[in-house]
Each structure stands twice: as C-alpha cells, then as structure tokens.
Amino acid sequence: MNELRLKLIIRTPREIIYEGRVDSLRVAVETGQVGIRPRMEPIVLAVEPGLVLVSSAGETTFAGTAGGLLRCDGRQASILTPLAVCGTDMPTVANELEAALAKPSVELEARETLGRLEHSILRELQEGGSQRLQPGEKGT
C-alpha cells in the first residue's frame, strides 16, 4: 500500500515541518497550480508563496510556504522552503503564514538580498552589452 503513496517532506533550513505518506498534493507555481501524485515522471518546480494542499487518506492538510523548490521522483517529493507552517484548518494556516512572512527573518532577508543582487547583476550585464565596442572601434 505504501508504494501507492508518495512520501512528502516539507523542510525549512531549521526543521522538517511535515513528513508522511500522501495520496497527492497541489502546489502553486508561476503559471497556476500543479498536482503531484505517486509514480509520476520526475519533476523539479519553483513553488510560489502560498498554500500547499496535501491529501492523505481522505484528509486534507494545508502547508503554507514562503515559496521554494519542489523535487519529486515519483516515490518521494521534497519541498525546500525558507519558511513554512502546517495545519488542518486553512484560515488558521493562512493567518500563521501571513504573520510569519510579516516578521523579518534571516532566511527571507537573505532571499530578498540575493534577488536584488541578481537584478543588479542582470542590469549591469544589459548596460554593459549596449556599451560594447562595435567592430573596428578602439577602446579608451
């Protein structure tokens, strides 16, 4: 029976928030929602911040995440996220996630800093590309 179920692990840098066998889960991605089931083809997804719906034995568990990375090989799915909360009551999980996201944390600050750095590097590369020498020009 366990081979018909997917092992799910939701992990933050500090702890495992959820670990167990599930029938399916649904995650938010940039283009909408993606369903994850046992025995599916391997996949890696960027998960958007929000709720992950976890179905197990007819019960639904909600995991609120700050976004992250989902990796699934058909037998096990792992969600790596800087911040997560978990529970069975959707409004409570949503409120806890909103409160956690409002608090400054080292992981979220690092993520924002890396995002700004990435944008800055891309901008420099784009500006540098427009200032490149044309064929036949000499540099100063």
How would you characterize the overall build of this protein?
With 140 residues, the chain is of the alpha+beta class. It has two helices and ten strands; from the N terminus they run ββββββββββαα. The protein has helices at 90-102, 106-130; strands spanning 6-11, 16-22, 24-29, 32-36, 43-47, 50-56, 59-65, 68-72, 76-80, 84-87. The relative contact order is 0.15.
Which series of helices and strands comes N to C?
A: EEEEEEEEEEHH
- The averaged pLDDT comes out at 87
Class by SSE composition: alpha+beta
Beta-strand percent range: 35-45%
Task: State the end-to-end distance.
Answer: 72 Å
Q: Identify the quaternary structure here.
A: single chain
Largest sheet: 5 strands, mixed
Q: Order of strands across the biggest sheet? A: 2-1-9-8-5
Shape: globular
Rg, nearest Å: 20 Å
Task: List segments where confidence is low: pLDDT < 50 over at least 5 consecutive residues.
Answer: none
What proportion of the residues is helical, as a percent range?
A: 25-40%
SS field, number of helical segments: 2
By DSSP, the count of extended strands is 10
